[in-house]
Amino acid sequence: MAKQFDVVVIGAGPGGYVAAIRAAQLGLKTACIERWTKKDGKPALGGTCLNVGCIPSKALLDSSWKFYENSNKMAQHGISLGKVEIDVPTMIKRKDGIVENLTNGVAGLFKANGVTSIVGTGKVLGAHQVEVTDADGKAEVIECDNIIIATGSSPIDIPPAPKTGDIIVDSTGALKFQSVPKRLGVIGAGVIGLELGSVWARLGAEVVVLEAQESFLAMADQQVAKESLKVFQKQGLDIRLGARVTGSEIKGEEVTVTYLDQKGEEQKVTFDKLIVAVGRRPYTENALAADSGVNMDERGFIFVDDQCRTGVPGVYAIGDVVRGPMLAHKASEEGVMVADLIAGQTMQMNYDLIPSVIYTHPELAWVGKTEEEVKASGEAYKVGTFPFAASGRAMAADDTAGLVKVIADEATDRILGVHVLGPSAAELVQQAAIAMEFGSSAEDIALTVFAHPTVSEAFHEAALAVDGHAIHIANRKKRK
Predict the structure, then answer these.
(1) CB 434 within 8 A of CB 444
(2) What domains, with CATH codes, occur in the chain?
(3) Which of 156, 181, 220, 266 could make a disulfide contact with 225, Cβ separation 3.0–4.6 Å?
(4) What is the C-alpha to C-alpha distance for residues 108 and 130, in angstroms, rounded to an integer?
(5) Which residues are CB-contacts of 7 (< 8 A; sequence separation ≥ 6)?
(6) Between the CA of residue 102 and those of 4, 50, 195, what are the distances in Å?
């Protein structure tokens, strides 16, 4: 007899496991299907983010920054350490331990909330049924009232640089290196490419980043993006824009990459390791039966409305498989929204205020509109900026690169966007997101008392600068 549930979630990533926990908290009988398993056969809950994405990459970023800081920044503090060495296998082991603790934590949360965890690959059938196939190919059908598709995404492969599992790797492979490559190539100067390139550059690799686009971080505010490019280049990242990779050839233990530069001239560069980080695609292959009624576009994204409903009543899709940025926190909040809707509650996620973060050092983060987007809309606006070079707390921490930028509506003073390059950028942008959620004006931030000395004062000063009232920098004169 088929199992019966109120909600079946397919995928236990940050969208799926959060949706399952929330649904169970609301009294719904819930199951969560996950095909990813550990060596012991137990489900590896947490999806890409927890297992091979957000969390492990941050572990390596923090470890590599500590190495870089101790190797290069201690003498000016009067601290003498001698030659600092990195034990890469130990660093990787620490990363793996963090992942293990967190995946076990999600399993514990499932148990505490009464979520049934099912190991296998889920497929949406018609008539509110889900087929689950285990590792041995045995299939069973589960009956349910509601289905949440949260199957996530996978790295995009490119024909000019096919993965080899050793020399040419994707983001997952780049988290497993057991030694520091002398020459490292990265295809793609997006979030993943910059973060992983930073990890290994700090540890001593000569890193070349090949980016096909002519502009750097096109999705970010360009004033802040251009400033970040200068910082990253100063750190030793050789970022080559307008570089279109056309081929790769492996000889022995190295790979030679061929690309066309901005002038259209062919160039070659040789690496010991090559990371392909050109983006991700929705993982929807074989997730839907032909008669499921759920529709996808030509790229594999599932069509949904503003509340993540598909065209089939009772079937929802969230996270990387639907429109919007491929971000863990976006997926999680969609999971909460959908669970609430299924339970009969009213819920609407605010898609205009999803923060974005690049965890380099300094961090780059933003929320709301870029200046380019505001300008394109035709609405009148005003801008205030404040450099961390003028922040006493940033100076004390020897972390003065970057700035805070606040964009506000000219007429209403309402904050339209906040962009930060600098220390604790992610935390400062979260302050901005909270303020913007409540319709804050630049004046509201300007009138708020900020603790001194803190790096968050830079946000305060940038808000003051919107109207030419910054205290700790000379204000720009407004055009008449």
Answers:
(1) no
(2) 3-155+281-351 (3.50.50.60), 168-278 (3.50.50.60), 362-465 (3.30.390.30)
(3) 220
(4) 25
(5) 19, 20, 23, 28, 29, 30, 31, 144, 145, 146, 147, 148, 339, 342
(6) 29, 7, 21
193 contacts 209 by C-beta, under 8 angstroms: yes
Q: Is 122 annotated as a binding residue?
A: yes
Is the pTM higher than 0.70?
yes
Instruction: Check whether 193 is labelled as a binding-site residue.
Output: yes
The DSSP line for 379-427 is --EEEEEEEGGG-HHHHHTT----EEEEEEETTT-BEEEEEEEETTHHH
Distance CA 382, CA 371 (A): 9
Within 3-87, residue ranges assigned H as helices are: 16-25, 47-52, 54-72
Interior CA angle at 236 toward 230 and 241, to 5°?
60
Query: Of 263, 216, 213, which is closest to residue 242 (Cα–Cα)?
Result: 213
d(CA 347, CA 340): 7
Q: What is the pLDDT of residues 73-121, one digit of tens each?
A: 999 999 999 999 999 999 999 999 999 999 999 999 999 999 999 999 9
Question: How far, in Å, CA of 305 to CA of 441, rounded?
Answer: 30
Mapping DSSP to helix (H, G, I), strand (E, B) and coil, where does residue 76 land? helix
User: Token digits for 470?
Assistant: 């910054």
Which active-site residues does the annotation give? 452
Pairing of strands 183-187, 273-276: parallel
Mean pLDDT value across residues 420-434: 98
Residue 195 marked as a ligand binder: yes
Q: At a CB cut-off of 8 Å and minimum separation 6, what does 118 contact?
A: 31, 32, 33, 34, 132, 142
